[in-house]
Structure formats: structure tokens, C-alpha cells
Amino acid sequence: EAGVVQSPRYKIIEKKQPVAFWCNPISGHNTLYWYLQNLGQGPELLIRYENEEAVDDSQLPKDRFSAERLKGVDSTLKIQPAELGDSAVYLCASSRGVSETQYFGPGTRLLVL
Amino acid sequence: QKEVEQNSGPLSVPEGAIASLNCTYSDRGSQSFFWYRQYSGKSPELIMFIYSNGDKEDGRFTAQLNKASQYVSLLIRDSQPSDSATYLCAVNRGTNAGKSTFGDGTTLTVKP
């Protein structure tokens, strides 16, 4: 079974530029999560999807962050405009259901200059 | 005060020893507790979860939960160099793993 796929793995951009991350969850996993992880800290949930519906986005900075999960499969997380403080690893995870084990993707490491 | 507290470490133990990792949480309504292992530069992977007070064993790993004292621990017996990683504790108000709050992790080094 293929794992969670994320791209790109690394991204370097200048501040104020837009950036997008893509996630392909494990086949059959209805629940998809986006996390932010700063160096030396644990992951922080940004948004959780049940199929195509965002059911928990309370931690998503909606002024600059947006996400979508069209057709309830792949998902995209966007930042526009990026700020220096957005430099972090963005992790995508998926699970069969909301109470099932989460499987994390390799993450996208973002550096904003 | 963070909702989930862990000693950042590093915790260093010799090969073959028992490594003890601790986690405290502030929300008394927490019901489910998870331990993830994260190797440097890699993503977290779930190694154990526990819902009830007491011990839960899985191979060399034992999770211990004490809800009255609001702490959960992970014991690793016969530690191996391959166990060297950061261990993240995650706490959840329900059995919904998706709403977990993570601690910042404890870095464990097992020396040969």
C-alpha cells in the first residue's frame, strides 16, 4: 500500500510570494489532515477534512492560508502571501476515519527568505 | 503552560537499558493518548495508543496512563540504537485521533 504522498519536498521562496503544497492520501482514507511543525516542536493541526468537507479549520490563519480537497481525495494547501514566520515543515496525514490511526506523509519543508 | 508537556531532553541511555519518557497534560477531559516516534528529518509514526488507566504493552514498548495525576509515560525496554529518535506525546479529548494536541517531544539517544 502506497503511503501519503506530498510535493514538493522542499520549497524556498521570498516573502510575499505565494506557495502551494499538494497531498495525495492513502487510497480509501476519507480523513485528511494538514499540520504545521516548527523545528523542535510537535505538529499543530491546521485543518482536517472528512471527505471533501473541512470539519476543523479553527487553527488555520484564514487571512493568508487556504485549503481545498476537491472530490474528497487530493488536497492543496496554499499560503498567499508567505511571511518569514511561515518557514516550517507542512505535514499531511490521512486515516480511514476520524478515530483511526493517522499516517503521515514525508512533509514539505518551506523556507521563506 | 502548554496543554501537553514533555521534557525536551536529550535523554541518553546505554544500549540494553530501559528508557522512560514522560508526558503531562492539562485537560482533565482528555480520554485518549498516543505516542509517536519521529526520526530526524522524517515524519511522525504512531507506535502506541492507550485509553484506560494502567499499563499497555506491545513488544518492547509499554505505555502507562494515570488520569488522576494527568500523566502518561512510555517505557522502552532493551533500548537499541535504532530507537534513537524524538518521541511525541499526543492527547485527545475523545477517541478522535484527529484532534490530538501534540507535545514538543523528547529526544532519545541510545548509545551502543
Morphology of chain A? globular
What is the overall number of helices of chain B? Answer: 0
Q: Look at the helices and sheets of chain B and give the structural class.
A: mainly beta
Low-confidence blocks of residues of chain A: none
Q: Per DSSP, what share of the residues of chain A sits in E-state strands of 2 or more residues?
A: over 45%
Query: Percent helix among the residues of chain A?
Result: under 10%
Low-confidence segments of chain B: none
- Main sheet record of chain B: 6 strands, mixed
Number of E-type strands of chain B: 11
Specify Rg of chain B, calculated over alpha carbons.
Answer: 13 Å
Shape call of chain B: globular
- N- and C-termini, Cα separation of chain B: 36 Å
Report on this structure:
- The complex is a heterodimer of chains A (113) and B (112).
- Chain A has no helices and eleven strands.
- With 113 residues, chain A is mainly β.
- The termini of chain A are far apart.
- Chain B is mainly beta.
- Chain B has strands at residues 4-6, 11-14, 19-25, 32-38, 45-50, 54-58, 61-66, 71-76, 85-92, 101-102, 106-111.
- The model of chain B has no long low-confidence stretch (mean pLDDT 92).
- The A-B interface holds A 31, 33, 40-45, 48, 56, 91, 95, 98-107 and B 4, 8, 42-46, 88, 90, 94-100, 102-105.
Key traits:
heterodimer; A: 113 residues; mainly beta; seven-stranded mixed β-sheet; 49% strand; B: 112 residues; six-stranded mixed β-sheet; five-stranded antiparallel β-sheet
